[in-house]
Amino acid sequence: MTKRVLIAFIILLFVSLSMCLNVEEMKKSFTVNINGTPINVELRTNIYLAKKTELINTTPEEIHKYYLTKPNIYINGTLNITPEEGGVTIIDFISKVKWLNHYYPHNIVVELERNGSYIYVDALTKDGERIKTYVPIENMTKIINSNKTMVVSIIKGDGKAKIIKRGNRFIIEGNSLEELDKAESRFIMAMLLGK
Q1: What 3-state class would DSSP assign to 98?
Q2: Which residue has the higher pLDDT, 116 or 64?
Q3: Which long-range contacts (C-beta less than 8 Å, at least 24 apart) are formed by 54-59?
Q4: What's the CA gap between 104 and 112, in Å, rounded?
Q5: Which pTM was predicted?
Q6: Is the pLDDT of residue 17 over 70?
Q7: N or C: which end of the chain has fewer CB within 10 A?
């Protein structure tokens, strides 16, 4: 009798767990259809963990709308952190945005360094032209503050994974590589899927 109760309990436990755990959410990639072409997008963490990212003052739909309607993307953040602290997440995000430029053309500007009154940038135009140059801060400020620009700042912060919107700026934040990976993956999903 005790064995039957134990077996029934184990079966019930497995059924309950399988109902709670969506296998699709354990994947570290998703497919998005762009102009009739399915594109597989790899993430740095699984979908389940990415969805645990806190969204503050924004929604996935808003991130998606900004990505599709703003012709300029300006990326900056804590670029001097080691790969183990989250630097690899920043590189991954920049690489994905540049790779997606083939499908969703933008003028992309990555801030590499601030030096006095200049900002050293790596820019990629909608046409695929790549430019590395120093730009006066006042010129860059006009682009950053333009209503045609989506600003993405990736920073190592104090807390768990979160995406915060302030004006036209989306801040991807986490206190470790794992938390930055969650927030970056969530942002990529929102940017492309709107959910």
Answers
A1: helix
A2: 64
A3: 54/160, 54/161, 54/162, 54/163, 55/162, 55/163, 55/186, 56/162, 56/163, 56/164, 56/165, 57/164, 57/165, 57/166, 58/163, 58/164, 58/165, 58/170, 59/190
A4: 23
A5: 0.86
A6: no
A7: N
